[in-house]
Amino acid sequence: MLVKTNSQKEEPGKKAGFPIPVRSYKMILLGFAIVLLGFVLMMGSGNTDPGQFNYDIFSFRRITLAPIVVLCGFGFIFWAIMRKPKDGKE
After folding, report:
1. Burial 8-46 (b: 16+ CB within 10 A, else e)
2. 36-84 pLDDT tens trace
């Protein structure tokens, strides 16, 4: 015979299921895609000649734009995890 303890009992107002709605999981995946895009923006061509310095590493795209895109992606992921659905059915 299986007996439920106090920690296993379901409260009448709560429903069982995932703690994060399915739509939020999709938004989290979109956030990871944004972060990945930021890291792709940071990439660039290397220099095959060690005696020559490549000044392209100081471009606007690598130094400014890419880190902003990565931080926006992490912020979007945080928002997707923390948000509450409006109707509770998501």
Report:
1. eeeeeeeeeeeebbeebeebbeebeebbeebeebeeeee
2. 999 999 998 777 788 888 788 889 999 999 999 999 999 999 999 998 8
